[in-house]
Amino acid sequence: NIPVIAIDGPTASGKGTVAAKVAERLSFHLLDSGALYRLTALSAIRRAIDMSDEHALAKVAEHLNCSFVGHDVFLGQENVTQAIRVEEVGNTASRIAALPAVRQALFGLQLRFRTAPGLVADGRDMGTVIFPTAKLKVFLTASVAARAERRYKQLIGKGFSANMDDLLADLQARDERDTKRAVAPLAPAADAYILDSSNITAEQAVEQVLRWYAE
Ligand code: CDP
Q: Which of 6, 30, 85, 198 has its CA 20 to 30 A from that of 108?
């Protein structure tokens, strides 16, 4: 019974950072499930797939030829670590993630990340749909203001320009789509610990998750 730590939450809540650090501390594998939706989006954009063609998009997801090497993400032989992070891909990912056939197509792939000695899974439905038997489920949240601020600093830090009003609007649109979709809507599992990271550092969040795991 390979242990899973499911970390779910809204966009820019710090899940990615916290999940990666927890995985590192425990020497567990890491599943960045958002990357799978982004890879599907990138692949579909490149093949000029009609974004309303659910069946065609599910096919793309089903045949995703991706691999994760350290912090890098590959599509076939190509390193797409940066390419999947651009805004257009994120937006497309958020849209196609609402399609049941796409989610279904990525189901089995996600389960295969559960290998010894353990897995930290980061996403929206890790504790509710993909790994309902996870040993620990954490729902990481933060206020909209705190999340927008973090994203702002992240973008500026990477040399991109950013506008706070646009970021807030984008965050709210994404929250809306994630929580209102018919399949796997974003919500904490009944047995999840809620962790509000608005006023704590990523390090403090990591320590809290590790304490809960050790309980
Ligand atoms: O943090 P951010 O919203 O930028 O994106 P992400 O975690 O990389 O995920 C990209 C998109 O995939 C999100 O907008 C979610 O709508 C979707 N997603 C999902 O539906 N289920 C997951 N388990 C992970 C991501």
A: 85
* Contact criterion met (CB below 8 Å) for 31 and 15: no
The residue segments making up the domain with residue 190 are: 1-28+119-215
Q: How close is the Cα of 146 to the center of ligand 1, in Å?
A: 18
Instruction: State pLDDT tens for residues 56-84.
Output: 999 999 999 999 998 899 999 999 999 99
Distance CA 87, CA 13 (A): 17
130 in the same domain as 55? no
As a whole number of angstroms, the distance between CA 64 and CA 149 comes to 33
- Residue 102's φ and ψ, nearest 5 degrees, are -70, -45
Say what the ipTM of the complex is: 0.94
Parallel/antiparallel/unpaired status of strands 72-75 and 66-69: antiparallel
Residue nearest to atom 18 of ligand 1 (CA): 34
